[in-house]
Structures are given as C-alpha cells and as structure tokens.
Design brief:
- With 94 residues, the protein is an alpha+beta fold.
- It is built from one helix and five strands, in the order βββββα.
- The chain has a five-stranded antiparallel β-sheet, with no helix packed on it.
- The termini are far apart.
- It comes from Rossellomorea pakistanensis.
- Belongs to the UPF0473 family.
- This is UPF0473 protein JOC86_001317.
- Pfam families: DUF1292 (PF06949).
C-alpha cells in the first residue's frame, strides 16, 4: 500500500482477500510508524450495524513493491489511534 491509496486488499488469517476502503492514514513521530484506518468495502453507513473500522501499522515498500500491513503492537499505540479516529470523526460531523 502507498500513502494516498483509497482502497487496499487485506488478507485475513484464513487467506481470504477482502477489498477495503481506506478511511485515512497518518504518521506518528512518537512511534516512528505510519498507520492506516480502513473498513471492508460494501459496509454501508445506512445499515443498522456500525461499520467496523480496522487499524494497522504499515511499512511502505521499496520502489515498485507494495507495502506491508503490520499489527498494532502496544496499548499505547491503540490509545493514540483511537484519539486520532475520534478527532477525524468529529471533524467529519462538522
């Protein structure tokens, strides 16, 4: 994945591919990582259920290669991601 992409393909634990819409990306100087927040394509806000938003760290690939999604490693990272998501959602409501 590259910064600015709108859709990514995520492969789950069972090897199934799922196309996802990128909500937003950001970088953290504190952790020295880039992060992406995304949700499964086809999840529609008009559904009764809330959209499940996923987050991953990502390492950009070398030129011509795709980057790699990595799991979030610490509770401190999750807290920062949650804060960024809340700020993003608050701005979207305005």
């Amino acid at each position: 994945m590259e910064h600015g992409e709108k859709q990514i393909t995520v492969i789950d634990e069972e090897g199934n591919e799922q196309l996802c819409e990128v909500l937003f990306t950001f970088e953290s100087d504190k952790f020295g990582k880039s992060y992406v927040l995304y949700y499964p394509l086809g999840a529609d806000e008009t559904d009764e259920e809330e959209i499940e938003i996923h987050a991953s760290a990502f390492a950009p690939g070398d030129e011509g290669e795709e980057g790699e999604l990595k799991p979030i490693e610490t509770e401190e990272e999750w807290d920062m991601i949650e804060e960024m998501l809340n700020t993003f959602l608050d701005e979207e409501e305005e």
